[in-house]
Amino acid sequence: MHALHYPVTLPADYDMDIIRTRVATRGHLMDGFEGLGFKAYLMRERGVAGSPVNEYAPFYLWNTVEGMNSFLWGGPFQGIPDDFGRPVVRQWTGLAYEEGGAADAPALVAVRHTRPVPDGRVLAEVMEDAAREAGRLAGRDGAVCAAAAVDPSRWETVHFSLWARERPEAEGDVFQVLHLSAPGRKSLPRGRQW
Prior knowledge:
The protein has about 190 residues and is α+β, with helices and mostly antiparallel strands. The protein is about 20% helix and about 35% strand.
């Protein structure tokens, strides 16, 4: 499992209905994409739910590197650089994935929480803690799913969770889910990834 995320920060006066329309007209194009676990079309709006910025920020969990590479280099991703400029694309190696009790409900919001891997800690212990945290998040009321991943180039973990409730039981940046393409979500490996 691989996580991929590219937040596109937009001007403070940007009309976020442009993003809503973009997702409403194009979001379905990823609904059957080969190798994709899921793509959450995410948006934050300045002043809403504590967001300091306007941001379009898709988040992906991939079942295969081939699918991810096909997306990035095979054409579909090109729409982002064409329309917004080339964003920084973050990638993380999967640590854990769990379905939540609300797995069959529509995802309304997502939470992304990154944290540095502390110096001096045993790496195996930090990764085990991150994997357990994904399980704890998935076990909370209203959780659709939760994942943990690590970027060893920056020594940073990310926890990502989808929620079927407007007020999630998780810390981090809260995003509205505009659409969820999930052709391979049922195939994402459960539990710890090593």
